Automatic annotation (TrEMBL):
<dbReference type="GO" id="GO:0004316">
    <property type="term" value="F:3-oxoacyl-[acyl-carrier-protein] reductase (NADPH) activity"/>
</dbReference>
<keyword id="KW-0560">Oxidoreductase</keyword>
<dbReference type="InterPro" id="IPR002347">
    <property type="entry name" value="SDR_fam"/>
</dbReference>
<comment type="similarity">
    <text>Belongs to the short-chain dehydrogenases/reductases (SDR) family.</text>
</comment>
<dbReference type="InterPro" id="IPR036291">
    <property type="entry name" value="NAD(P)-bd_dom_sf"/>
</dbReference>
<protein>
    <submittedName>
        <fullName>3-oxoacyl-[acyl-carrier protein] reductase</fullName>
        <ecNumber>1.1.1.100</ecNumber>
    </submittedName>
</protein>
<dbReference type="Pfam" id="PF13561">
    <property type="entry name" value="adh_short_C2"/>
</dbReference>
Length: 254
């Protein structure tokens, strides 16, 4: 691997949904670059394992269990994270309710976790971001936001809403010099993740999806983390209101 190209020493980073997969890689990327990092998720064991991995980089690492479908829990977590880190420079909203069926529960989970958790965490973090010298918000959207889907309409709809929210939020916060962007990952594989499960449970879907990726492989969580670090860095200081697709060309096949 090449040397870490970013320097986030002095930054305070909060990753909502940071104990596994993409969120974990984003949190570890910031820690490797020198940032103090706080993460939340529901699973206590995975949180503590990730907190220890963050601390191994010699940075301040904070973790707290939080149900990101719960508005009060989000408010309490963000306040605790800001207290532990001494402020917030970067907020990463990464959680998903994975609403892939058409039942009310899938729609409600997607609305509460994919969209409203981002809205609520942003609202709670805003006073700290306004006080930061380089405030930045990043949302994890999806390439599903850009195309109609016969299956997973709930997931696609809330991710599309999140991408739209990114643009409106960026405009609203520009006067405070807070940048807001989103990342739209393609299909990302990691241990015990969605695509690893589908490889076993839905092998035909797995193979069909793989065949649509020009790079010939699924993405890695750290490849999304690299994009997150760039968008949060001074190198992206004139970029706001955008959703960056990171998909190995997957969308090129529609």
């Amino acid at each position: 691997m090449p040397r870490m190209p970013f320097d986030f020493h002095g930054y305070r980073v909060v990753v909502a949904g940071g104990s596994r997969g993409i969120g974990r890689s984003i949190a570890l990327g910031f820690a490797e670059a020198g940032a103090a990092v706080s993460i939340c998720a529901r699973g206590v064991a995975a949180l503590e394992e990730t907190r220890q991995a963050l601390a191994a980089h010699g940075v301040l690492a904070h973790a707290q269990s939080c149900d990101l479908a719960d508005a009060r829990a989000i408010e309490a977590y963000v306040a605790e994270a800001a207290s532990a880190l001494g402020g917030i420079d970067v907020l990463v909203n990464n959680a998903s309710g994975y609403g892939f069926d058409d039942g009310d529960e899938a729609w409600i989970a997607g609305f509460n976790v994919d969209l409203m958790a981002a809205v609520r965490a942003s609202r709670a973090a805003l006073p700290h971001l306004k006080a930061a010298p380089h405030g930045c918000i990043l949302h994890t959207s999806s390439i599903a936001a850009f195309r109609p889907r016969a299956n997973g309409a709930a997931y696609a709809a809330v991710k599309a809403a999140l991408s739209q929210y990114t643009t409106s939020q960026a405009l609203a916060l520009a006067e405070h010099r807070i940048r807001v962007n989103a990342i739209a990952p393609g299909s990302i594989a990691f241990a015990d993740g969605l695509w690893e499960r589908r490889k076993l449970e839905q092998p035909e879907l797995y193979r069909a999806t793989l065949a649509k990726i020009p790079f010939g492989r699924f993405g890695k969580p750290e490849e999304i983390a690299h994009a997150a670090l760039f968008l949060a860095s001074p190198w992206a200081g004139w970029i706001t209101g955008h959703t960056l697709v990171v998909d190995g060309g997957q969308m090129l096949h529609g």
